[in-house]
Each structure stands twice: as C-alpha cells, then as structure tokens.
Amino acid sequence: MSDSPHQTTADDPDRRLLVIAIDGPAGSGKSTVGRRLAAQLGLEYLDTGAMYRGVTFAALRRGIDPAEAEVVARLARQVELEVAEDRLVVDGVDASIEIRGPEVTRAVSIVAANPEVRAELVRRQREWAGERGGGVLEGRDIGSVVFPDAALKVYLTAAPEVRAARRSQEVTDLSYETVAADLARRDALDQGRADSPLALADGAVVVDTTDREIDDIVADLAARLP
Ligand code: DC
C-alpha cells in the first residue's frame, strides 16, 4: 500500500489515482451523494451495485440458477458490462430497467456473495478507475477492499424506515411493507456474508443522511479532500 493518500495503479506506480469510495446499505443515499460529488469534482461515477445486478440479470436471462456458484462465476468472467451514468448494457442488451426490478433484486445478494464473482468485478472496478485516473465509486466494499487507500472514504447511513421509504419511491409497483422487508433481508445478507461483507472501512467518514440536505453533505465531503 502506498504512503500517499492517493492510490497508485499497479502498472504505473507513479500515476496517482483520485478515488473517492462511498459505501453503505441500500437507501442510505450513496447514488445521490456520489453522483453530485462526482459532478462537482469533475470525476466519473461508478455504481458497482449495478455490476452485481448486471451479472444477476445475465444469469436469470440464461436460465442459470444464481446459486450455481461455478456457472455464475464463469458467466461473470465472460459477460460484457457497459456501465455509463445511469445505464447498464449487458452483452449488448440495455438492462437499465430490469436490473432494478424485483427478480434481479431478489437474486442479487446470492450472486454478490460469490467470491469468484466478487474477484472478477473488483478487478474490473480497479481497471475502470485506473483508466480514468480515479473516480467516485459506490458500493459495499469500496473503502474496505477495492480501494483501501482511497483519498476519501465515506460510509453513509440512514434510519431503516427512511431507507425503505426512499427505495419504495424508486420501485413504484411494490408496497412499502414489501420493500422494507426486502431491504432488511438484503441488509442481513450483505452484512453477514463471509466475503467482503458491508462494513465500516478504517478511516471512513460516517455520515448519517436521515435529516441532512444533500448539498450540505456534498459540500462537507468535498471540503475533506486532501
Ligand atoms: O447497491 P445495490 O442495491 O444496487 O447493490 C446490489 C447488491 O449488490 C446488494 O445486495 C449489495 C451488493 N453489492 C456488493 O456486494 N458490493 C458492492 N460493491 C456493491 C453492491
């Protein structure tokens, strides 16, 4: 690990990456805060959860059981994922809408618990940042595993009922109760899995977004950059 607050690329150790790592549970505000912060700093933004959702979408589309660990891992290594802003193209098919739907949402935690899938997607996330000189990446393990030397590590939280209310606004076809129950189930899976569980990374700034304005949070985080 470097002694600088900025990460270096493996192939060119002198080239500094400006990485901002944002982690936290579903509905904690990662996407909203991450996108705004990226725009303000002129950096690109990567939603790594969309990548896990993309692999899940590809598996379901091929009729592969998400629990078939080896088959899903092979698929993760082969599948083409094009992530751009809020769009995700999986093997040439625009999956931006389907990856947010109930089928993918139900199955994604088991895919995200697959160590070989994680290894492949972490590799792609590091490559993505290396190609751009850095970026704002959001997920569950960005500050703890993907970029432990990130220039800024942020852990967002919010009250469970507020997180569920935010998510149920996004998925209009499900009741608040269904969304809240699904969120609690996914929280437990994401925090309890053996490989890279959602956890507070060393040195991360913890921000509770329950009652705070986005502009205020973004200004606060931008001011913390070295
Ligand atoms: O943020 P999201 O709800 O779109 O994430 C989808 C799933 O992927 C969720 O179960 C957590 C998991 N995930 C992960 O394990 N690691 C990441 N870096 C990002 C998401």
Write the layout of secondary structure elements.
Blueprint: E1 7-8, E2 16-23, H1 30-41, E3 45-47, H2 48-61, H3 69-78, E4 81-84, E5 87-90, E6 93-94, H4 102-112, H5 115-132, E7 134-139, H6 142-146, E8 152-157, H7 160-170, H8 176-192, E9 205-208, H9 214-223
Parallel strand pairs: 2-7, 2-8, 3-7, 8-9
Antiparallel strand pairs: 1-2, 4-5, 5-6
Helix pairs in contact: 1-9, 2-4, 2-5, 3-5, 4-8, 7-8
Bound molecules: 2'-deoxycytidine-5'-monophosphate.
2'-deoxycytidine-5'-monophosphate (DC) is lined by residues 26, 48-49, 52-53, 108-109, 112, 139-141, 186, 190.
Architecture overview:
It is a single chain. With 226 residues, this protein is an alpha/beta fold. It contains nine helices and nine strands. The protein has helices spanning 30-41, 48-61, 69-78, 102-112, 115-132, 142-146, 160-170, 176-192, 214-223; strands spanning 7-8, 16-23, 45-47, 81-84, 87-90, 93-94, 134-139, 152-157, 205-208. The strands form two sheets. Strands 1, 2, 3, 7, 8 and 9 form a six-stranded mixed sheet that branches. A three-stranded antiparallel sheet has the order 4-5-6, covered by helices on one side. β5 (87-90) and β6 form a beta hairpin. The chain is globular. Residues 1-5 have low confidence and may be disordered. The chain binds 2'-deoxycytidine-5'-monophosphate. 2'-deoxycytidine-5'-monophosphate (DC) is lined by residues 26, 48-49, 52-53, 108-109, 112, 139-141, 186, 190.
